[in-house]
Structures are given as structure tokens and as C-alpha cells.
Amino acid sequence: MPEHALRPVTPALYRDLARFRYALRIFLRFSERAAHRCGVTPLQHQLLLGVAGFTGQGWATISDLSEYLQHRHNAVVALVQRAQRAGLVSKHRDPDDRRVILVHLTPLGRRTLTELSRLNHAELTRFRHDFAIAAPRREPRGRPPVGEPESR
Fold first, then answer.
1. Residue 35 and residue 64: Cα distance in Å, rounded?
2. What global pTM score does this model have?
3. Are 136 and 36 spatial neighbours (Cβ–Cβ below 8 Å)?
């Protein structure tokens, strides 16, 4: 049995998991707001990121994006169509297999993703300590350590 499966569930583990989830929620909320400020939905942002980076080739198939986004194939087809109408992506048939659709970023999609990536990277850098479960005693921003009263 893996060692982590034997770790006892303790109040400290709950605290570490809660702090990690808290940091994730803060980052996701930031990222969602940044997407809206850049004129795209959070899901369109994730689509752009998946096209640019998921396969490492700078493009992706609908099946790749379905896996990356953890959405059904037909939902991803509709998302790609909306993103194409917005000028964020282009799609073409694979010349080697006409059944396969290849999705690429347009210049607008690339500019949007670049701006969002800069914003998100800066935010991740700022919050990196909140994501580090390895430092479980660290408190979320502005919060006193557990069990200590807030200063007034």
C-alpha cells in the first residue's frame, strides 16, 4: 500500500487541505476576473491555453481539447465554434485524416492568451506560498495563525 494511504487523517491535514483549497479558490477567482477583463469567458481562456499548450505542438484537436477541458466532445465543438466566431481560434481539417479537426490560435487569440498568461503568472508568483502544502504553518494572507485571536 502506498505510504500516503497510511497517513492518519488529523486536524493538521484538514487545515493543510483547507488552506490549499482556499489558495486555489483565490487564484481561480482572480483568473476568472482577468478573463472577463480581457473580453473572454473563463472557459474560452482555458480553451486558448489548451490549444497553445496542452499537446506541446501549438495546436490541438477537438479530442485533445475535450480531454484537457474534461468536457464532452460535442460541448467542446460548440465552444470552439463560439471562439471561432469571436476571432480567437481557427479550425481546419487535418490533411492526413479529414475526420480530425485541428484548432489553432488566431493573432487575436494569441494576444489575449499572452496577456492572460502574464496576469496569471504574476498572480501565481504572488500567491506561490499559499499553494505550498509543504509549509503547513503558513497562514492565508491577512489571517492570524489558527488558534490565535485577530489583532484589533
1. 22
2. 0.78
3. no
